[in-house]
Design goal:
With 414 residues, this protein is of the alpha/beta class. 38% of the residues lie in helices and 20% in strands. A 13-stranded mixed sheet has the order 1-2-3-4-6-9-11-12-13-14-15-16-17. Strands 5-7 form a two-stranded parallel sheet. The protein has a two-stranded parallel sheet with strand order 8-10. The longest helix has 40 residues. The radius of gyration is 32 Å and the shape is elongated. Keywords: Coiled coil. This is F-box domain-containing protein. It comes from Mycena sanguinolenta.
Length: 414
Amino acid sequence: MSVEELQARVAKLSAEIRAQKEVLRQLEESKWAAQRELHAICVPIAVLPLEISSEIFLRCLPSSPSPNKPYAAPMLLMNICRAWTEVALSTPELWASIDLRHSRIDVLQSWLHRAQHCPLSITLHRRLNADASAVFEQYAPQLKHLTLCEAGSYVHLLTSFPRLETLTLGSPKTLLASLRTNIPNEWKLGDVARLLSLAPNLLRCASRNANLGSWDPDSDNDLPTLTLPNLRYLEFGGLRVGSELITRLTLPALDTLYMPLEPGSSTDLSPFLQRSVPPLRKLVFLGGQSTEVDEYLRLLPSLTHFEWLASSGAFDVFTALADSESLLPNLRSLKVRGRSFNHISALHPTLLRMLSARHPRLVRFHLFGEQPMPDAETLVEFRHLIAEGMEIVIGEQKFDEGRTKIITTNYISS
């Protein structure tokens, strides 16, 4: 064949190839259209409005969404089909919460970017490296809930958290890890104080199974005196408590306080209570002596719920409540746990006198500890108060033989 003939042949074949490619493209489009129709029939969610699909996806979220959980929402929803991926990426609320156990900057950045401008809830199990901290700082203004499980400097201390409402320090797992390794998960008071100073609109702060270190005059002399005008809930937990911290706080809106009273501690809560004048309604003391507890209670006339894990002296407090109507005049619920009680022979008559004096304002009373069964006459009087609407539980709580559950004995209903 001549050159001209070969060139014409090549041109013709090229044209036929282009035509066949166009036929193939049209066949593929027809195939995808048929697949979409089939998918719409077999999977109705694919044709639902985005608002409905998003609401269904949101109801699939676990309590702690995590990039480490590929078989739970939202990660699982990204691996089903293209339509589900598009819905997941179009629903910022799916990505507004993250439980992060590593410092991979790409994961943190992409997750929080998908949340767009939603208020964020972040749980950090480990300290962040410098790059991840920079990403964290970028999104700090959107933070609404923050949990820091491990002690240490997680964040740049110049970062502000203007929308932060809840701050939680520690977790049960970090407590178990610290007990196994004998390395305390102990927070420095200065770090906690500075975190609080960066969250002016904080509503709740809880230290759960996280130890707050004792005051170090060499490093903590410059701790700021903080006023948190909106804080309503404060919980100190753990084996040790930084009692010095509360002496640096003014909390005029405080509604609920969980406070260990350390044996031998020189910390006096009275200046804090007198300075804050909080409208406290619920108070839980862990430990403490009767004299200091009585002093603090006299500064809290608004209190309606009081719980006390008593070290000693509960009898004296019961006597004071029986004798003085001005002490906790609004009290509605009283729960006391103690290993043993002094003046054991007069305990139940004193309790009966206290409950009778405060009836009907006091509607709930629980007392657990080593104590004898009330005598028959006293039992009748207790049950008479129960018949009039008061909830009374007096008895013991002990672990079963396997120490797997607590067995409660109520002498009043026995």
